[in-house]
């Protein structure tokens, strides 16, 4: 199912001052040259009836000098860890004087399985252009190939499509100038007392770091854009690690600097070639602008930014109250349209979840109003919250099932329960009962993305199930590590390693920032056992 | 059959002075911006049981502004004539803000049929890298795409491999900066009194012009190198047209400036990235260095160059006399090795032809020695000529067949007859009988390339069959025009439009300088009917 929004004759409202603030905060990227570490082979094998991709060492990099490549020969370089950057290498002819250009195909893979898939056969709905392949002619040899495009990868394959019968190619000096707005050394490793969580934390921080570029990118292989829902999680992880407050501020001003003409904040923002809001509105993402602003204010005490952006945060709630509710204060279901995100996954009904996110945003709205001294607005929101909570229970709570349902077909999903808990529709005890009951029932409409799993863990922690949250973190994020993750993924289904929302894992993103939150949860809620109510 | 020479541990001898002279003569290329002329479609149709590629107008270029391209869409631009140069165009997104790179494949075709062939299926022995295709990602849009590689083409296809569901591409400002060391305007069109020959002359001149770049290139799509056998014909056509004497001089000094360590002149020379002789020796090509030098001296009177290069011209003959002959003064057959060119085509035995080229070179050697006042050498060559002619007749003339044979299997080919005539083994009358007899018998081992056809016409003219030569020129070169040639081709078999010596027409070259000689023959031998004996 293709999921995207698109608006004909899209009109925007620009606040030049805000965009200028964002522009002034553009980070200077750190650059680090990383050499390829070794030469490997990649194979699919069957283990217990399941296909698995394995990477095997093939040769030491010192042996590369003796290797010759002609038509059809391939070599895979392993950079040892996930890289985001600009690749260069030397291609040197050997044999007779080269009498034809060299013709090579480069393939970059975050996960080794990408190397074994047939990109020509790709027929998913996401653009093929995201597949990290290049076909190059080298007319003058020897050549120092410096690729102008940025890639996200651990493995780089060079396939020689052809030289000529008279010469072969050698390769040397394979390296990547890796880039990020931050450096791993800025963050002190976690000492959790359990290696599993230290590893999960380390990989979370690496995932976040790789996605911190000119903005918080959602994924560095694909999409490479600033999404509001992702920003919220990245910012939270950033506060307990790199503490790059300017990048959050920049992103807040971007979203506020160009909105839909009616004031709605877009779900996603382009920063290249010039600033531009995408014509995609997602109700939950727009509502999360307020929580992002609150988190930022809480982390920095930057009252100027709070004051400037407060009106827009509040208006996202107002717009939803005015346009998205029926006469019973229940969010109107918009079915299969791309109107509210919550999670990928087939057939998830968003109605109940959207109501919950609205309530969640209103709680943060109250915090914002309080900080602004806007007591009338605070009271108004408090009243509205009660109304909407009641409406939520009436519309979605199924007494027989003891779970929330969503949509006209009364769908029971994990997402609806989790978000209703995070919305504090019930108190902590009843919420705890609900999440434990949900685990027992295990509704068929499951969670797919780390984005949704984060909210599940957040809900467990709020309910006081911190041990269980740790177990689930190990099962899910630890499961990715066992499956070979160097950075955390966009999509992970423990039951189906090769799940993709796009019709092909070739375009899955394997360093996706919305999966970086274990570092936030571990560092925020576990160090001294303290739990801050307002935060979840 | 793959045909190429290759020498392990190849050693060269360099004359720095000569290479410096060549470097100083590097031409400055003329540049001319040519806009695409129209939009066409290309189809294969069956006509009288033969496949034919037809080009049909599809749209006016002014309609391009209304065209939108997404995944799988293609457009073919017709530049109206053969171009050699650097292409640029604008790619502009339309629809929502582009949310993925644009991904396009460009295909350049000298002949329209190249657009219908499957380059992935190419399995010929020449490098795939010559196929004029590029696959590009455009990360920032709109983009002015300036392709850094030079292409030879009339048709340019853009295939959009993907945009995204949210946007399409538009294209505009499709143009080519065409380059050459010379300009068509420098040459006065021929007025032969018969449009057929005016056309053949014009296309000959265009072919030559397009191949005059930093050196005389053999073909501008593929190979793009200086070959000695080709140089001889290009230089002759150049003397009656552009009269760019410096380019001939530059090429002579290149060949003389770096030779095999034993003094043999290479068949081919690389001028990029630095000067380097190829490790290919072709006996006939090396021997033709003398005739090229003589033609140059005759055209320019440049006695300094003659004096400097005379020793190397003569030594090519000496080397052959010393190393390539058996005790009966007959060239030793080297079978299927790539040792003597004469023509492409399967199974042509080169022994008789090589003997003839040696005799041909000796005749020019006598001219050179005479001009140098080297009378002892002149007499020696005259004596050797008689000996070798006698040996040629004894070894190769078949009295019963009344034709020359070649090799241990006594092969009868067109090439052997033509070169024996050009070698003046027989006098003009007997040569005329031979060529007419050959036409009647039509030996199975035919001529394939315009290079060989040129020598056939040259032989006809020398035999006094100037009308017949014109008829054959019209049949062969006129035939290419009827088949759609904008410039003359590397290979043309009137009986098989799709013949290729490389296993696929995809790598055939459709602007190949060795086919430019009709302008030489028409302007040299037909204007006033004069025929210069020494020249053929």
UniProtKB/TrEMBL annotation, chains A, B:
Q: Where is the Alpha-L-rhamnosidase six-hairpin glycosidase domain?
A: 194-522
A Pfam family name for this chain? Glyco_hydro_78_N
Extract one GO BP annotation from the record: carbohydrate metabolic process
Chain segments annotated as transmembrane: none
The record's annotation in InterPro entries points to: 6-hairpin_glycosidase_sf, 6hp_glycosidase-like_sf, Bac_rhamnosid6H, Glyco_hydro_78_N
Name the source's superkingdom.
Bacteria
* Domain (Glycosyl hydrolase family 78 alpha-rhamnosidase N-terminal): residue spans on this chain: 55-177
Which PANTHER family did the record assign? ALPHA-L-RHAMNOSIDASE SIX-HAIRPIN GLYCOSIDASE DOMAIN-CONTAINING PROTEIN (PTHR34987:SF6), C, PUTATIVE (AFU_ORTHOLOGUE AFUA_3G02880)-RELATED (PTHR34987)
The protein, known as: Uncharacterized protein
Q: Which organism is it from?
A: Eubacterium plexicaudatum ASF492
């Amino acid at each position: 199912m293709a999921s995207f929004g698109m608006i004909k004759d899209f009109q925007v409202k620009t606040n030049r001052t805000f965009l200028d603030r964002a522009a002034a905060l553009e980070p200077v990227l750190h650059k680090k040259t990383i050499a390829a570490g070794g030469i490997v082979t990649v194979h699919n094998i069957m283990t217990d009836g399941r296909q698995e991709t394995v990477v095997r060492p093939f040769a030491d990099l010192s042996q590369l000098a003796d290797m010759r490549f002609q038509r059809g020969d391939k070599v895979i370089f392993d950079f040892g860890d996930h890289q985001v950057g600009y690749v260069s290498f030397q291609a040197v002819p050997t044999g007779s004087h080269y009498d034809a250009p060299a013709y090579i195909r480069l393939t970059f893979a975050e996960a080794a399985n990408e190397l074994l898939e047939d990109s020509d056969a790709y027929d998913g709905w996401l653009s093929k252009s995201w597949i990290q392949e290049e076909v190059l002619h080298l007319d003058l040899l020897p050549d120092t190939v410096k690729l102008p495009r940025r890639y996200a990868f651990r493995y780089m394959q060079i396939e020689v499509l052809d030289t000529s019968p008279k010469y072969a190619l050698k390769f040397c000096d394979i390296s990547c100038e890796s880039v990020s707005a931050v450096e791993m050394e800025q963050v002190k490793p976690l000492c959790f007392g359990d290696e599993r969580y230290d590893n999960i934390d380390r990989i979370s921080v690496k995932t976040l770091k790789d996605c911190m570029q000119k903005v918080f990118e959602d994924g560095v292989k694909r999409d490479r854009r600033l999404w509001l829902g992702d920003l919220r999680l990245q910012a939270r992880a950033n506060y307990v690690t790199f503490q790059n407050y300017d990048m959050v501020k920049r992103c807040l001003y971007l979203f506020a600097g160009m909105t839909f003409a009616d004031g709605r904040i877009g779900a996603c923002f382009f920063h290249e070639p010039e600033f531009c809001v995408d014509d995609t509105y997602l109700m939950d993402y727009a509502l999360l602008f307020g929580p992002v602003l609150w988190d930022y204010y809480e982390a920095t005490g930057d009252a100027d930014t709070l004051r400037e952006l407060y009106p827009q945060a509040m208006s996202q709630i107002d717009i939803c109250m005015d346009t998205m509710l029926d006469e019973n204060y229940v969010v109107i279901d918009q079915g299969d349209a791309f109107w509210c995100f919550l999670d990928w996954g087939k057939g998830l009904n968003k109605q109940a979840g959207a109501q919950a996110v609205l309530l969640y945003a209103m709680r943060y709205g109250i915090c914002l109003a309080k900080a602004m001294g806007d007591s009338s607005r605070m009271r108004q929101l408090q009243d509205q919250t009660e109304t909407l909570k009641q409406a939520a229970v009436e519309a979605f709570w199924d007494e027989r099932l003891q779970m929330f349902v969503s949509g006209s077909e009364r769908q029971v999903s994990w997402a609806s329960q989790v978000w209703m808990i995070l919305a504090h529709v019930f108190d902590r005890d009843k919420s705890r009962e609900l999440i434990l009951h949900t685990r027992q029932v295990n509704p068929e409409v499951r969670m797919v993305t780390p984005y949704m799993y984060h909210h599940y863990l957040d809900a467990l922690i709020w309910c006081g199930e911190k041990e269980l949250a740790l177990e689930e973190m190990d099962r899910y994020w630890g499961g990715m590590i066992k499956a070979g993750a160097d950075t955390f993924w966009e999509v992970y289904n423990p039951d189906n390693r090769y799940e993709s929302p796009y019709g092909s894992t070739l375009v899955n993103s394997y360093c996706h920032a919305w999966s970086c939150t274990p570092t936030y949860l571990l560092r925020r809620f576990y160090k001294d056992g303290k739990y801050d109510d307002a935060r979840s």
